[in-house]
# Entry
Amino acid sequence: MTTQNEIRVSNPTSVEDFDAVKALFREHEKELSEEICFQNFDVEMQNIQTIYSLPKGALLLATCQGEVAGVVGMVGVGEGIAEMKRLYVRPKWRSKGIGKILCEKIMRTARDASYSLMRLETFSRLDGAIALYLNQGFKISEESEKSPSRDKNICVMVASL
# Structure
């Protein structure tokens, strides 16, 4: 059983760290088998260090037992609003609390950066992710429920920080 002491979460700083983040983002894209280019994914990959840089953004990289295990990002999207992006844990490391730790730490990072609300978008079919977010205080947004133009496969969630 993996303990929290074996899980290390840090901000990527080296070329190797950012390469690991990009690899995780690509794995996430492939696993979802969804077209996420509509989110300007290729542009995001090219500008990852700028998009996710402090003070308006952040990246967290998780390692476990010396191996890259997961990632999460955050970007500012409005006055007092941060968006959690690309939470992903490699299959080998799932069900070990890494997703929860990344979620908690990126929410703390957003709060420390003076954001008061965090939003996220996830695919409605990702029951495990939705359960994690609900357990972290997120609620399904009215944006998901009421907007006729929104993709019904997307669940928008929000949490006060």
Q: What stands out?
A: Residues 15-32 form the longest helix (18 residues).
